[in-house]
Design brief:
The protein is an alpha+beta fold. It folds into 3 domains: about 80 residues, 2-Layer Sandwich (Signal recognition particle alu RNA binding heterodimer, srp9/1), CATH 3.30.720.120; about 55 residues, no CATH class; about 90 residues, Beta Barrel (Lipocalin), CATH 2.40.128.50. It has 7 helices and 16 strands. The strands form 3 sheets. Strands 9-10-11-12-13-14-15-16 form an 8-stranded antiparallel beta barrel. Strands 1-4-3-2 form a 4-stranded mixed β-sheet, with helices on one face. Strands 5-8-7-6 form a 4-stranded mixed β-sheet.
């Protein structure tokens, strides 16, 4: 048997839960019951994934339960159209900054289920990184690509690791504009450690004349210039921006903006 992890949910009513999941497209693999009526345990599948339900769970009125399900699909738009009038929607269809197009519903026991597939942005960036012009061409034919998304893809396709002349031309034909040039001296002036309230830290570094930022101990993200002082992560869509503050020609801090919130950080070290 192949090694795998299968989550198990304890629910108040196994039969009701299994029937509900079957109604939205899951397949019932097995039902068992201490008294033979199949009320105490059920196993279901969706594609290659499986989930178990066992009796003994408690009902809840909380906004979010202890665990969620994330389900990868190939037709998220069609699935949303089929389910949206039949289930409780927590979040409608949207493109997340981490490269997934998804929507969230609530099951009969108030557990969240997210259905998602790679967004057009993610497919475009994967095509660039893999040097697959056909994937890039298909992504460009889709609607909804923003100008800054095309610029990110062009910057990616122009880097040493992923340089591809054919893909660059496809992106330029689609309207991609190269990001502004920022000289190495200016980039180096932003390198350092920045701290904010409650010990939050951001480490800015320079590698091969490209700026990177790491929040806390997270993996460094390559930044693309929007202008001489403002940058955005190149591999994420709508993740936010970093703006550096200067006083008398010296970098003193930065502001990290994500969604509607902005965090101010002070530069405490000039090297990272």
């Amino acid at each position: 048997m192949a090694e795998k992890v299968v989550p198990m949910f304890h629910v108040p009513n196994v039969r009701e839960t299994a029937d509900w999941y079957e109604s939205i497209g899951f397949t019932v693999l097995a039902r068992y019951g201490d008294d033979g009526d199949g009320n105490s345990f059920a196993m279901l599948s969706f594609g290659s994934g499986e989930v178990m339900f066992s009796s003994g769970g408690q009902s809840s009125t909380r906004h979010r339960r202890e665990v969620d399900l994330y389900v990868y699909v190939d037709n998220v738009d069609d699935l949303y159209a089929r389910l949206r009038d039949r289930v409780e929607i927590v979040e409608g269809l949207h493109d997340a900054f981490y490269g997934m197009r998804e929507f969230i519903i609530r099951d009969v026991n108030r557990f969240w289920i997210t259905f998602g597939q790679p967004s057009v942005f993610q497919r475009l960036m994967e095509g660039v990184s893999e040097g697959d012009a056909e994937v890039v061409r298909t992504a460009l034919a889709s609607s909804g690509l923003k100008p800054e998304t095309l610029t990110s893809a062009l910057a990616f396709a122009s880097s040493i690791d992923y340089e591809n002349a054919e893909i660059r031309e496809l992106l330029k034909e689609a309207g991609a504009i190269p990001p502004p040039d920022v000289d190495a001296e200016t980039l180096f002036s932003y390198v350092g450690r920045y701290t904010g309230e409650q010990g939050f830290e951001c480490h800015v570094s320079l590698q091969d004349d490209k700026l990177f930022a790491a929040l806390g101990r997270q993996q460094p993200l390559r930044l693309m210039p929007v202008d001489q002082f403002t940058f955005r992560p190149i591999a994420f869509d709508d993740f936010g921006i970093v703006s550096f503050n200067l006083e008398n020609g010296r970098t003193t801090g930065c502001a990290i903006t994500h969604d509607d919130s902005t965090m101010l950080l002070k530069r405490v070290a000039e090297t990272d």
